[in-house]
Every structure is written in structure tokens, then in C-alpha cells.
Amino acid sequence: MSNNNVQIFDTTLRDGEQVPGCKLNTEQKLIIAEQLDNLGVDIIEAGFPVSSPGDFKSVEAISKIVKNATVCGLTRSVENDIKVAAEALKYAKTPRIHTGIGTSESHIKFKFKSNQEDIIERAVKAVSYAKSFVEDVEFYAEDAGRTDNEYLARVCEAVIKAGATVLNIPDTTGYCLPHEYGAKIKYLKEHVKGIDKAILSCHCHNDLGLATANSIEGVINGARQIECTINGIGERAGNTALEEVVMILKQHPYLNLDTRIQTEMLYGISQLVSDSMGIYTQPNKAIVGANAFAHSSGIHQDGVIKNRETYEIIDPKDVGVTESAIVLTARSGRAALAYRAKNIGYELTKLQLDEIYINFLNFADKKKEVNDSDIHQIIENSKVYHEITSA
Ligand SMILES: CC(=O)SCCNC(=O)CCNC(=O)[C@H](O)C(C)(C)COP(=O)(O)OP(=O)(O)OC[C@H]1O[C@@H](n2cnc3c(N)ncnc32)[C@H](O)[C@@H]1OP(=O)(O)O
Ligand SMILES: CC(C)C(=O)C(=O)O
């Protein structure tokens, strides 16, 4: 793996599956896992095996069918969780156990009623135990976003010594600002002994809408794995959206960071996840939303018709969207009307267009969105169209 490669760790089937209302059965999870593997994700977090017999079965079944990606199971720093995860992952070609514990003051005090030294001891014990089953052990310091950097560095150092191959630095509560999260990663790179033996990973939540920005700051500052989900789904306000971080790295080549993702599959897999989970994707969602490549105001439409790049920074085909849409509304101008009319076979002269445009605006004010059959009717009902065409 080159030093410029950012590993994509997909947690749609674990953190994404924690979404209230999510309805995914094992069959559907298998279809999604297969598509994630084809998409080129490096790691698929398939579930939390100890949590239920159904989740165990799903992780085991996914382990059997995934061909390329590492398959990962989540655990607490609890022996039985780790043992059960190892069992569920036993058919995976490359298994990973993801274990960890909360490290922030609030987690240590309120969740564990414990102290910092005891937490380090539990973390080390968990990593060592996981290591007795698999080579690849990822450690998460839950709520690292609100954990003091000096203590976090001590935790990281201890778990690297115990054999952790990946250090996950989650902003569990989505609290950090991008410069703070980036500085945290930089601090760990500079202060943790043995850090070169492990990969730093970003796992950012979206409570303040900053998950994507924080993950990007993380990789700019030295992390080389991003944990993310399709459509950004996940606990509460969700996780970093896979399609967003992948396209940011692709569209900003000067960052010199790349992924193995087949970006033309992004739209299809977004639809698959949304349909299978029964979780609707907002139309204005970056990259995969229904309006991400739709233009509905006249000035934009005129620009896009002249040259797509005036209002699009991504070629829709690069993410699997066939073409941009020119949506006709009362905010559209003549360029858009002429373009859509031409698409259905009407070459309008300037005079015809000016006349038909007036009728179009009156119609659009009432109906809001004007479709092909409306355009056809507006044109056919226009006196000037027939006069000029027959002249
Ligand atoms: C930030 C995240 O997304 S973490 C992943 C969240 N996902 C999930 O929680 C889904 C899977 N979880 C489950 O199925 C269940 O919560 C289980 C099986 C893990 C545990 O169930 P229960 O034994 O009934 O415990 P419950 O959920 O009520 O409480 C969690 C317990 O785990 C402890 N715990 C929480 N995190 C950790 C950890 N990383 N390491 C060790 N112990 C932990 C808590 O302190 C609490 O223990 P306590 O009862 O001694 O206070
Ligand atoms: C379990 C960890 C990785 C997590 O989901 C979080 O901290 O948000």
C-alpha cells in the first residue's frame, strides 16, 4: 500500500445499521456486502457479533462471501465479545477484530466508574486477547474527540505495544472542529512511540455536520484510514459519508491522497442501501441526492447548457449518474426551455421561443415543475408556433 493510499473502512452494516427504523435482514446484508466488495472498500465492518444471534449469523455469512476486503467485527473490551467475534470471523480470508473502550473523562467517570490507569489496563488486555485470534487488531478509543491528547497518546502507545495494527480515533459525539480534529491526529503522529507500526483511523460522527470535514482534516494530518458509511447513515446524525470523502480526495488531486473506490458505482450502491434499509436519502445530499446534478434556475441552466463545468465540479458519470437534469420551473429561462423542447423534437425560432416562453411562465407559476408532456402541449397550443412553422 502506498503512503498516499487512504483505506476506506465501510461501517454501513454496523454503525449504519444502528439507525432507528433500519430493516435489514441477512440476505440484504449479503447483497450489500458483495457490492461494497465490488466497490473497492478495503474493510467491511460487518456487525457486532456478540450483540445477537442474528448479527453473529450475518457476520459469519458475510465472512464467507467477501472476496477482497478485510471483514471486521466490533467488540467491547470484553473477553466474551472478542471470542464470539473471532468465531464469527473464522471463515474470512482476512479477518479483523475491532475492539476498544471509552477514554474521555465523561466515559471513564460515568460509564465505567473507573480511572485512567484501569482503562489502559483493560484496553491492553483486550488487544492482547484479540491478538491471540487474529493478526489484524484495530483499537478504538471511544470519544477520543473529547479525550485529552496527552492521555490519548498514552493509551495509543500501550495498545500498539500490545499489538494493535490500527488506531481508531473516533469523534464519537461529533464535537470536534476540523482544525481540532486534525491537530489531534498530528499530535498522535508526533507523540506516540511506535506510531509508525500502526495506521491512524478517522471515525467521525455528524452531530454538527462536520464529519466529512473532520475526516478530511484527519487524513491531511497523517491518518490513512477513514471509517464511513454509504449515504452517511449511522447513529444519531450519522457518520462520515463514504461517497463524500472519496469524491473530495478524487476532485482535489493536489492533496495527493487516493482510494481504491470504483466511483462509478457510488450512485447505484447509494440507491441499494437506501432501498434495502428503507432509509430515504435527502434530495440535496451531496454526490448521491436526487438533486445533486439537477439544475432548476435559468442562469445556472444557461451556463450548464453552454458548458457543464460552469456549475458542476463533478462529471455525473464519474459517480454513476447518467446525466445532469435540466428541471423546468418558473425560475427557468429561454435557454432551458429551448433545450428541453429540442430534446423532444422542437427546434424553436427566436420569435417562437419568446412567445411560447410567456405561456410557459404562466403555466409554470401554477404547476411548479413542467414536464415533457406539458412542454409538448404548451408548444402545440401556441398560435405563433403553427403560424411560423407552416409559413
Ligand atoms: C459508539 C458506538 O457506536 S459503540 C457500538 C454501539 N453498538 C451497540 O451497542 C450495539 C450492540 N450492543 C449490544 O448488543 C449490547 O449493548 C451488548 C450485547 C454489547 C451489551 O448488552 P448488556 O450486557 O445488556 O449491557 P448494556 O448494553 O445494558 O450496557 C453496556 C455495558 O457494556 C459496558 N461497556 C460499554 N462499552 C464498553 C467497552 N468498550 N468495553 C467494555 N465494556 C463496555 C458498559 O459499561 C455497560 O456495562 P455495565 O452494565 O457493567 O455498566
Ligand atoms: C465503536 C466506535 C468505533 C464508534 O462507533 C464510535 O466511537 O463512534
From TrEMBL:
Keywords: Acyltransferase, Amino-acid biosynthesis, Branched-chain amino acid biosynthesis, Leucine biosynthesis, Manganese, Transferase. It is an enzyme of class 2 (transferase). NCBIfam families: PRK00915.1-3 (NF002086). Residues 6-267 form the Pyruvate carboxyltransferase domain. Pathway: Amino-acid biosynthesis; L-leucine biosynthesis; L-leucine from 3-methyl-2-oxobutanoate: step 1/4. Belongs to the alpha-IPM synthase/homocitrate synthase family. LeuA type 1 subfamily. GO terms for molecular function: 2-isopropylmalate synthase activity. Its EC number is 2.3.3.13. InterPro entries: 2-IPM_HCS-like, AIPM/Hcit_synth_CS, Aldolase_TIM, LeuA/HCS_post-cat, PYR_CT. This is 2-isopropylmalate synthase. Signal peptide: none annotated. GO terms for biological process: L-leucine biosynthetic process. Pfam families: HCS_D2, HMGL-like.
